Amino acid sequence: MTTSFYLWYLVTTLVLAAVLYKPVKKVIVAGRIRRTERKLGRDLAEEEMAAIEKKAIPLAVMIVMTFSFLFNKVLMGKFYIQ
User: Fold this and answer.
1) Helices 46-79 and 3-40, packing angle to 10 deg
2) pLDDT tens, position by position, 54-77
3) R_g (Cα) of the chain, nearest Å
4) Is there a domain that residue 27 lies in?
5) 52-56: long-range pairs with CB below 8 Å, 24+
6) Is the residue at 1 inside a domain?
7) Which DSSP category does 44 fall into?
8) Residue 60 falls within a domain, yes or no?
9) Predicted structure pTM score
């Protein structure tokens, strides 16, 4: 393996993670807000929603980076590594 291959792997993983971050975060936040509203039986205040959004960031980053890493590994292993 060459250095350029590893650089390409890193760049494509980061780009894919950046593209997927916002939609994944939205799904996580929407699910948590709905669950919390149902649990409390009332609508959430703006501060509570902001707190939920802050808590969703590390989870979204972890999910997106893991998926991107594994997706690129499978894709590159299938097409680029003989």
Assistant:
1) 150
2) 999 999 999 999 999 999 988 887
3) 18
4) yes
5) 53/25, 53/29, 56/25, 56/28, 56/29, 56/32
6) no
7) P
8) yes
9) 0.82
